[in-house]
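Running co-folding for zinc ion.
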Amino acid sequence: MRLTTIGTGTAAPSATRVQAGHLVEADDVRLLLDCGSGVVHRMAGLGLPWQALTHVAITHFHADHVSDLATLVVAWRYGQTPPRAEPITIIGPPGIRDLLARHAAALWESLLSPGFPVEVVELTPDAPLALAAGVTLASHPVPHTPESVAYSVEHGGRRLVYTGDTAPDQALGAWAAGCDLLLAECSLPAAMAVPTHLTPEQAGDLAAAARPGLLALTHFYPPVEHEDVAAIVATRWSGPTVLAHDGWRVDLGTLPRTP
Ligand SMILES: [Zn+2]
Ligand SMILES: [Zn+2]
């Protein structure tokens, strides 16, 4: 299983980071986690197989996580030759179906019938979804907006957890416990802390609770980049930590096994 961080930024325009989006590849599954503005064009820039995605999973309905969804479906219909024929599955917490219907009403009436099958799945935490044989997606509610979830992807004995956007949450640390890779948001410095996002200190606390094989940080608002994020995290969590960038890639099979 391989992760590529496509977009490690936020709502704040950045010269180097587009909004949230991450590609998980496992066997024949190519899963896009979140699809914020800039993610579709960034996939092209990074040479990633945007035409061949099999699943898209959305953590919550803030613009910086969903605003390229319509762009992506339009790209499959009009941005490639021949147009896409393969089915796509779009997954999200309950409400994703209504969100897509509203996007269709506002942006493109054929969004849910673009010439290839679009399956919409409203995933609940009690019912993990098999994306393919041996590849499982599960969700877990997180405190950010009412619908917000974190996701885990399991394949070949490895587990990746992506927090989406979240506030500090002990239950999330317990749910992520022992994962091989924890992709965690790290939005704002302590001096600008808000109750709906993580500071580097809080991301470190989350990692200390979850004890992942590797902590990768993402979702950086520009002010947090003026801090020594790695040094701050290290005051709370002594394990391996990476500050992801657009195009950062890791093969989970190369990570040491968590005890
Ligand atoms: Zn958000
Ligand atoms: Zn966000």
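Result summary
Residues 180 and 213 are 4 Å apart (CA to CA).
The longest strand covers residues 135-141.
Job closed.
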